[in-house]
Amino acid sequence: MAHSNVHLDDGVHSDLAALPTVRAITRADLQDALRKGLADFSAAPTHVIFLTLIYPALGLLLCRAAFQYSVLPLLFPLVAGFAIMGPFAAIGLYEISRLREQGKAVTWRNGLEVVRAPGFKSILLLGGILMALFLAWLAAAHLIYATIFGDAVPKSLGAFIDQIFETRPGALLLIVGHLVGALFAAVAFAISVVSFPLLLDRNVDVVTAIGTSLRAIAANPWTMLEWAALVAALLIVGSLPLLVGLAAVMPVLGHATWHLYRKVVV
Fold first, then answer.
1. Taking a C-beta distance cutoff of 8 angstroms, is the pair 14, 212 a contact?
2. Residue 44 CA from chain centroid, whole number
3. Contact 265/216 with Cβ under 8 angstroms?
């Protein structure tokens, strides 16, 4: 498929010549990236499961902690944090896709080789930025709940569900919480949609990586919006059966993100 090169001045970096070139893509490219991501997962499922079972396991631990320490109001924000931390969590999957793209045989150990990548320090820095964003989201979620319901903590999961879905304040919490959560997720998506694959693939700094992500979205606003909606929908589906579905959803999206990067960045 032919792509048109797009150079946009986003003001993030003063030397435009040093910025990677981004291309305009279409819905067909998204579909192809997803197909290739599924193919990567199908070709090496035992390799990626090792890397991704950690995420649903972590989610279950977070749920358990929520019940144990009476922080039920933060249960949903904790689970929703997968949308913020996902791009960083999938870094090992990008490496596996990169090696498969080169025709190399891979094992789960290849996913850990990212520690030797030239841009690994920048990867950690950007991961730290996403972690700070995630913590800010939790703080905002707690503030929203406290503003609407005060300091009262529901005594059980059933009481919490009734409080959220059977009362007017609960409806307000859902509306405000979703809007604020969508804002945090949008920021995370904007700065990371192709940043981590770029940092893995080339020795660039965090500013250049974030700038490239922003330029990719500016060049493909509607296509990237479709991609964000697809990612959100798949994460929701993967989270429904006690988060275990993320063991399949996360690797497919991780591999697909690598192929999306290849289509967007020259």
1. no
2. 21
3. yes
Structure tokens at 259: 């192929």
- Cα(249)–Cα(122) distance, rounded to whole angstroms? 26
Is 180 exposed, middle or buried (CB count within 10 Å of its CB: 0-12, 13-18, 19+)? middle
Question: What is the distance between the alpha carbons of residues 153 and 149, in angstroms, rounded to a whole number?
Answer: 9
First and final C-alpha spacing in the chain? 14
Q: How far is CA 33 from the centre of its chain?
A: 16
Q: What is the pLDDT of residues 5-57, one digit of tens each?
A: 444 444 333 344 468 999 999 999 999 999 999 998 888 775 566 556 666 66
Per cent of the chain over pLDDT 70 is 80
Is residue 40 helix, strand or coil?
Answer: helix
Helix (H, G, I), strand (E, B) or coil at 266: coil
- Locate tokens 């707690």: which residue? 142
Q: What's the rounded Cα separation, in Å, for the pair 223 and 241?
A: 29
